[in-house]
Amino acid sequence: MAKILVTGGAGYIGSHTRYFLEKSGHTTVVLDSMERGDQRAVPAGMLRQVDLRDSAKVKQVLREEKADAVIHFAAYMAVGESNERPEAYFINNVGGSLSLFEAMLETGVKCLVFSSTAAAYGIPGKVPITEDQPYAPINPYGESKVMVEKILGWLDKFRELRSIRLRYFNACGAEPESGLGERHDPETHLIPLILRAVQTGKPVTLFGDDYPTPDGTCIRDYIHVSDLAEAHIVAVEYLLKGGGSDAFNVGTGGGRSVKEVLAAVERVTGKKAPHTIGPRREGDPPSLVADSSKLQKTLGWRPKRADLDGIVRDAWEFAQKG
Ligand code: UFG
């Protein structure tokens, strides 16, 4: 069993991964600036409040905690915001990562799992998407993740820092019992926004119904956050056993349209989800679905919670807790 440093462990996916690491018998420590993290998502005594760009402090934490590996989530993640303030995304996501990697190299921590994204592919040439499709981000958020992926390629080649880059599709749901869930401020993601519409009666806007898809709305691959968390566990364990650097898509392989998600919310809550149809949102590809067979074959991971109603049920349970 290992000691894992989880950067961004007070965030949505980071906190779930920290929870599953502990359940698997690993010890964890969370490093988070708390600029956007949620205090409630970190158990008492587990948080080291540090900004990643403070490399000296990160080094100190790595030494004091005697970490064996790092899982690196800490980053800004709102696509729209990244279009408005690209510099903030490069400073925080790329600058923060570089500072972390410098600290890891200096303290001899050579295993890293990196939180990457399907946004690295932009508008993909073919769907389902395999990992060999080229980098083609269409927003600064995606570009910031691609830059870090490329940096990791060089650090593997010349500095023996081994890394697994996990490219997530649409993370959603919540782990029942954990008390954890999705709490972004502002919230931009589809499932929590539809649930909020059910709760408040204020309509959610569906961004476009004139896409070249069967019902005209965008198709995405919704992956339960607990399945995503488990992908991190197998990835870090693989690295700790000496596995080499690689990149994997993490999705279910099943695409669901915005209208199908809305229908699932209505089924699960038993209530109408008030909505209006608005214009398309800039930069939304019509369809993003993962081919995650490489992850399944290489690391033996399987999505266990792919049923959309089950995902929505878990998100609804969390949303009702307020
Ligand atoms: N949508 C709406 N109305 C809303 C919000 C979203 O119709 O109010 C639609 C979007 O147009 C999209 C789908 O719901 O078709 C999902 O949108 P999300 O904002 O929930 O998620 P994205 O697919 O835009 O983004 C996710 C991650 C990003 C990542 C991206 C990869 O949140 O971090 O997938 O493409 F970059």
Short description:
With 322 residues, the protein is of the alpha/beta class.
State the name of the first-level CATH class of the largest domain: Alpha Beta
Tally of DSSP helical segments: 10
Bound molecules: uridine-5'-diphosphate-4-deoxy-4-fluoro-alpha-D-galactose
Q: Into which percent range does the helicity of residues fall? A: 40-55%
User: Oligomerization state of this entry?
Assistant: single chain
Order of helices and strands: EHEEHEHHEHEEHEEEHEEHEEHH
Strand content: 15-25%
CATH topology of the largest domain: Rossmann fold
The biggest sheet, with number of strands, parallel, antiparallel or mixed sense and barrel status, is: 7 strands, parallel
Strand neighbour order, sheet with most strands: 3-2-1-4-5-6-11
Keywords, separated by commas or semicolons:
single chain; 322 residues; alpha/beta; Rossmann fold; UDP-galactose 4-epimerase, domain 1; 2 domains; 7-stranded parallel beta sheet; 3-stranded mixed beta sheet; 14 strands; globular; binds uridine-5'-diphosphate-4-deoxy-4-fluoro-alpha-D-galactose
What's the arrangement of secondary structure elements?
Blueprint: E1 3-7, H1 12-23, E2 27-32, E3 47-49, H2 55-65, E4 69-72, H3 79-84, H4 86-107, E5 111-117, H5 140-159, E6 162-168, E7 170-172, H6 190-200, E8 204-207, E9 219-220, E10 222-224, H7 225-240, E11 246-250, E12 256-257, H8 258-269, E13 275-278, E14 287-288, H9 293-299, H10 308-321
Parallel strand pairs: 1-2, 1-4, 2-3, 4-5, 5-6, 6-11, 7-10, 8-13, 9-14
Antiparallel strand pairs: 9-12
Helix pairs in contact: 1-7, 2-4, 4-5, 6-8, 6-10, 8-10
The structure holds uridine-5'-diphosphate-4-deoxy-4-fluoro-alpha-D-galactose.
